[in-house]
């Protein structure tokens, strides 16, 4: 009651107990409804309560977020050219290394004003032994924070571009129960920020990770993972890839069984089979996928969209749709014959059907080109090579005229050695002197 009367005296001036209030005072007091209570002829005014919350962004955000808001630059400021040296210098967190209640004088203040119980024991104020190295430790800790230390990776561990994640290895997937992924390796193909507009939260930012995992022996899997933090997204994508494993046939443990065409969306890929030692001549995402699958020799040409996820999906679709030589022989009911350069293009039968068709059973309009049949009745569109620049010069015509007499002489010599074992004319039987190296017999 006394508190209320003190507030009354401050609001409407000096009032006397039992004195009748004036008209002006009553008019001013009536503006506040239900606030005047008559009690023993004493007007009592209750205070107006205003609800408010004892909270702000200082106790909502973490210390790291508050430090970032003070020391970093906003996106709008970064677009205008401000804060160019922010990434090179790290702000010092002066709270790091500090302990609440411990200062220069090593004294314990339990609860500051409230006693603190440790079990049944009352913690009292006491002075601890001095720590002369405390200041040196704090200064050293702050000096280490101020230096910018770029991440250093060995050339084997680096990705496609410097220290960025795409192309880097993040290890095998996590074990599931007793099953472990021994011999598997996971490579990051894509790591980017994505946004989704929510009705109540606005723009929701997440990190999207696209990875491929494999054991370099035909088993591989791809997956996409999203999370707020990049580490969580990578871990989620890696474990999902381990659960979506497929097996891919590899010819002689180094390449695909045949050339094929594959497509996903607007991305088209023409994959060509290559001999051993050729290497991986293709997009870097396809090369990374081939390394974890176990493919060592390949050529791939991409047409259309270069969306990374579409490239990998199209490539995996083509790998899963490829057919072995025996499957092609049984489907076509013809022998599958291979011509290899290292064998001097000697025909080698690699697969035979149970029953082979005869020449009369083959339709005239049937596709007999192996490459065209493997590509789904498609052919490679190759640009015609232009003749060299010197063929347009006048000196080239003079060279052709001079070399016309001796042209193809080397080829004729090789053919004669292969067929007859020596270089000779077709009239050698009739005219022995036409044989190379012939000498007339000496007269005796």
TrEMBL record:
SUPFAM superfamilies: dsRNA-binding domain-like, Ribosomal protein S5 domain 2-like
Keywords attached to this entry: Mitochondrion, Ribonucleoprotein, Ribosomal protein
GO biological process, one term: translation
Subcellular location: Mitochondrion
GO molecular function, one term: RNA binding
A GO CC term attached to the entry: mitochondrial small ribosomal subunit
Xref: Gene3D superfamilies: 3.30.160.20, 3.30.230.10
Chief location of this protein within or outside the cell: mitochondrion
S5 DRBM domain ranges (all copies): 184-248
Transmembrane residue ranges: none
Family label: Belongs to the universal ribosomal protein uS5 family.
Subunit structure: Component of the mitochondrial ribosome small subunit (28S) which comprises a 12S rRNA and about 30 distinct proteins.
Annotated protein name in UniProt: Small ribosomal subunit protein uS5m
Source organism per UniProt: Cryptotermes secundus
